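FYI - complex with zinc ion, inputs then prediction.
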Amino acid sequence: MKANFHTHTKRCKHAIGSERDYVLAAIKNDLSVLGFSDHGPFPDKDYGSRMDFSELNDYLSEIDSLKTEFRNKLKLYKGLEIEYLRKYETYYEELKVKYGLDYLILGEHMYTDIDNQIKNIYFANSTGDYIVYAKNIEEAVSTGLFDIIAHPDLMFLSEFSWDKNCDKAVSIILSAAEKYDIPLEFNANGLRRGKSDFPDGRRYPYPHERFWNELKGSNQRVIIGSDCHIPDLVYDNECIKSLEICTDLGLNVIENIFEV
Ligand SMILES: [Zn+2]
Ligand SMILES: [Zn+2]
């Protein structure tokens, strides 16, 4: 069975293709499960790189109608990839209950800093920020409202040398995933960015080998996420390569978050 739960659409304004385009691409690639997880809006503010809040209902009803139309071809799920920001504490439950989302992917790009300001991990000032970031992930999963932690090693896209803060941040994230039994995503979109030179060697920005090596021998559930922003990439070579890397490491790879 082939599945992908990390799928964007043009609604986030930095992807191409409609929901239908991704469904057709998924069928072409023999997927039997496709989950939509476009970048989720916040009700009161546009933080950019995401769908407008006014499009949320259209997005969900479009997936509902595709679900019926293609019910004999593949199974569709309605989700969003969204940051956990403390000030929106009640919103995540509303997304699931009132809006009927099947799942939420925690895609922590922005996070709440110790001074309560919203920061972006793409612009970390030091590896000290990784610890605050990791604690945000821990707080998010403790709500029980998230179903996958996307790119849990996203922070390593910054160009800092590996130090004890990195070890600590990784340990916070892995412990939280284990404690709340939530799958970690090995993100194929990081591989698409290619390898480049970092202070700790030539590597992908993420996934970071050192992070995933920590999971060797554990039973932690891992899921491959395409994180496609182009329909043709819904299950491309980088997804296959991601699966190979995880298999070589002996990780517990799952395909479907709804099947135990
Ligand atoms: Zn993301
Ligand atoms: Zn994404």
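The longest helix spans residues 164-179. The chain has one domain: 3-254.
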